[in-house]
Amino acid sequence: MKQRAPWMLAVMLVAFLLVGQSAAYVYEEVDTGGDDPVIKGGVRGWPGGDYFPNHDPDYIIVDLTDNDYRTYTAGDTPVFPHGYYMKYVCFNADGTKVAMTTRTKFDGVSDPYEVWVCDYDGTTHMLSNALQITSTGGVGDVAENGMCSWSRTDPDLLLFNEIHMTTANLVKTYDFSTSSFSTLYDPALDTNGFDVTNPGFYAQDDTKVILGSGYNTGNDRILLFDGTYPSSTISSPDKNLDPSSSYDGTRVSYYSTNSAYPYPAGSIYTAYSGGVWTEQTSGWGDPVTGNVPGLWAFYSGESDDRILSLRSDLGWTSTALALYASDGTLLSDLTGDGGTDFQWIYANHNWEGPGGEILFRAEEYSHPDYGNNVFLALERPSTVWV
């Protein structure tokens, strides 16, 4: 690792004395294109090179999990997050917890996905106290538990998809205040729906949920369940899945093969006005010349209604994540084109943190089978960040 100039160390010392030992700070070096060693796991100090060498220079990207990609054999005790594969990362309503669905492998064989929750410190930007919430994967008809998200108003209310092997999946909740599970939506009771993919709460209402139904049947569509059966269909009957609601509920975006994009699929949205849902198959505009929200577009869950999605102009890609305004205008080419190191860079519901942090997951090409990492994008300070 390169030597630090004395004046840089002096700046660090002054900042340390000013803010106290419990505070966190980052003093950024000139971007070196990713050649320097990187300090991971939320460790503060000298981040060194960048994870995504051509990312937006207005952001610092921090690795929250520092997965060492270890492998396990029968009899080993796994140590989270090492060797774990993590998906659907999301903040709770007050930004004090991060949930995800995760699994590991023993002797090369994957365990079922389960829902885990970690405490999140918005000052140090570190995760701690990892706790497994579900444990029914592989028990009876339950294959795994996944596709989690949070209430936008209640920091204790977690939503997830209980995935079954033969019967329809269930939308369930876990309430931290009562340590209890509940079923929020059961397709068996719905004459309009069957099966469930990636559910999320609708707007600010914890009694309503949006979800994909009929996955891979050719009749995939987006449903709005308001707490009473039957649900309402708010999209065309095509391959539509992974819906995300705007803050006020007047728009629901989703991945669709029914889009007007010049690619196999893109994100479009349905708009609500005058009691009627109208599907906008052109999405937010021309996906090539405009670089508008592309595949898997998720609203922030906050009143700014910012959108995090894969870049539209790169077509079918999983390496480039971008930030957009609510009208689809590009705000940040967040990870650049992702480079050649990372793939499957995705957002989820509730990706925006209490200080505007941007939460996402990414998988390294060199470790496709034994885990990935969770990242946080933070606005870059001019010198010292406290």
SSE layout and pairings?
Layout: H1 6-19, E1 26-27, E2 59-63, E3 85-91, E4 97-103, E5 105-106, E6 109-110, E7 114-121, E8 126-132, E9 142-150, E10 157-164, E11 170-175, E12 180-185, E13 197-202, E14 205-213, E15 221-225, E16 232-233, E17 240-245, E18 251-256, E19 266-273, E20 276-280, E21 298-299, E22 307-310, E23 321-324, E24 330-332, E25 342-346, E26 358-364, E27 373-379, E28 384-385
Antiparallel strand pairs: 1-28, 2-27, 3-4, 4-7, 5-6, 7-8, 9-10, 10-11, 11-12, 13-14, 14-15, 15-16, 17-18, 18-19, 19-20, 21-22, 22-23, 23-24, 25-26, 26-27
Brief sketch in words of this structure:
With 386 residues, the chain is mostly beta strands. It has one helix spanning 6-19; strands at residues 26-27, 59-63, 85-91, 97-103, 105-106, 109-110, 114-121, 126-132, 142-150, 157-164, 170-175, 180-185, 197-202, 205-213, 221-225, 232-233, 240-245, 251-256, 266-273, 276-280, 298-299, 307-310, 321-324, 330-332, 342-346, 358-364, 373-379, 384-385.
Beta content: 35-45%
Strand segment tally = 28
Strand-pairing-aware structural class: mainly beta
Largest sheet, spatial ordering of strands: 2-27-26-25
Flag low-confidence runs: 1-49
- Please state the overall shape, judged from the principal axes of the Cα atoms: globular
Helix content: under 10%
Mean pLDDT across the residues is 81
Largest sheet: 4 strands, antiparallel
Order of helices and strands: HEEEEEEEEEEEEEEEEEEEEEEEEEEEE
Q: Measured on Cα atoms, how large is the radius of gyration?
A: 21 Å
Distance between the termini: 24 Å
Query: Helix count?
Result: 1
Oligomer: single chain
